[in-house]
Amino acid sequence: MSILVYIEHAEGAVKKSSLEAVSYGKALSDKLGGGDVVAVALGTIAEGELSKAGTAGASKVLHVNDDKLTAGIIQAHAEAVAQVYMKVGANTLVLAKSSLGDAVAARLAVKLNAGLVSNVVDLPDTSSGYQVKRSIYTGKAFAETTVSTEHKILAVKKNAVDLKTDGAEAAVETIDLSISDASFATNITLTDKATGDILLPEADIVVSGGRGLKGPENWGMIEGLAKELGAATGCSKPVSDIGWRPHHEHVGQTGVKVAPTLYVAVGISGAIQHLAGVNSSKYIVVINKDPEAPFFKAADYGIVGDAFEVLPKLTEAIKAIK
Ligand code: FAD
Question: Do 229 and 94 share a structural domain?
Fold first, then answer.
């Protein structure tokens, strides 16, 4: 039986979280004794992007190159993926947990009569049944979910699996599908582009500032460090509430949830509501002048110091290394 992996892309570039889903699919296939790992991507994608799915572990990549599918219209994506799933004769769909992924997966679960587990952090335990470990309560606990349906959908949490980079070249095959007009009834006419070149939810490195920065006029320090690191910028909730930064940069329980390899928090206290949005980060660096700031408990590395002294030095040091 094959495993199908649904690939998301942003502005033509395949998302890292989707490549992680491909690597998960490959590891799952190896665990279950082999079988094809087929990746499917919908809409217009930049040249060369789809070959990344091969190095991440896919044996084959199917591209539905229909421009109407480029915008993430949920119904149309669900219908397209369901058709491809039947075509390849898969019994498992793997995808990255994301807003679009969640919406598509829920519809597919109904269409395919499949059991769906979201926020998956590990390969299933198949020693007795099919038990899947998933992250719950914004990363504070794990739950084991037993899936007993023939068809299964697993939405993998960002940064939960290692990205495979040594897979073989995969053949990319373009396929045509007939998707009903009704699936395109929702018309996405405007997408809100975030400030900066790097989209915050997808960023591999994030530099975030809090109230400790004292005012919007000091944000050049955050942007300077972010530029040197190739990072997106974020902020705490009060910072966006006061209007120092736009709301789409607000990170936390009530804002954007990020899962970068590196999260740098500057002048942010580390309230639980902020941590809920960053605790999937691989490494956290905290810069705060208060050694008792709660964020230090969640940090991998901490600098106790005044942001106004530390940031310019850190930015210069990184510039010098480069
Ligand atoms: P502060 O708590 O004021 O902390 C500022 C920090 O900067 C302090 O630790 C201080 O030591 C440090 N500092 C000051 N000067 C300097 C300096 N010169 N150099 C270095 N460090 C310095 N918050 C979020 O961020 N995201 C959310 O999604 C979110 N959701 C919430 C939902 C609810 C229902 C509620 C009740 C609250 C929520 N909050 C959220 C707010 C949260 O509880 C905190 O109030 C908020 O995160 C604090 O922001 P802050 O750390 O920027 O500010």
Answer: no
ipTM over 0.90: yes
Say what the pTM is.
0.81
Final residue in a domain of this structure, among 157, 184, 211? 184
Count the domains in the chain: 2
Measured over the CA atoms of residue 206, residue 211, residue 214 and residue 217, the dihedral's sign is: positive
Q: How many helices (H) and strands (E) does the chain have?
A: 9, 16
Closest residue to atom 28 of ligand 1, CA basis:
252
- The residues, any chain, with a CB within 8 Å of residue 140's CB and separated by 6 or more, are 279
Quick check: CB of 290 below 6 Å from ligand 1? yes
pLDDT in tens, 189-224: 656 555 566 778 888 899 999 999 999 999 999 999
Q: Is 277 in the pocket of ligand 1 (CB under 6 A)?
A: yes
Detail the residues annotated as belonging to a binding site for FAD: 211, 267-274, 288
Summarised one tens digit per residue, pLDDT across range 76-107 is 999 999 999 999 999 999 999 988 999 999 99
Does 192 fall in a domain? no
Same domain, 66 and 134: yes
